[in-house]
Amino acid sequence: MKHIILFSIVFFLTAMAAKADSTRIVVHKDNRIEALATKQTKVNNAPAPTNFSGHAKGYRIMVLNTNDRELAYKTKGQLLSRFPQHAVYMSYQAPFFKLKIGDFLTSTDAADLRKKLANMMPKGVFVVSEMIVVKPTDEAKVK
Q: Which CATH fold topology does 55-142 show?
């Protein structure tokens, strides 16, 4: 009895497999789908564009993180006098003053200035990812 049931199950499965092989599916594809997929691939691979306010993803160098206001302002003055070509940003997140310098599109550009600042700042400086201000001369590099 077991052999008969097993034989019928095997026969049924082979019949279903043969029937599935003979079934064909025809797909009618619209060419516009291919065009949209290509366009989306280009958008996904493009670098981050600037937004309407002239900002883009980039890097700055964290120079100081302290709760001493006088030290923060003194260091900001030193940075402005030594590196006038770079913007200096000071923010306050209670109870700390954070001092950052530069607007860099690549981390390698930021690392070059970080090496120069490492001699000036004994406690260490770090490259951080942040929204930066993009100069009109650098907009072509972002797009």
A: Alpha-Beta Plaits (3.30.70)
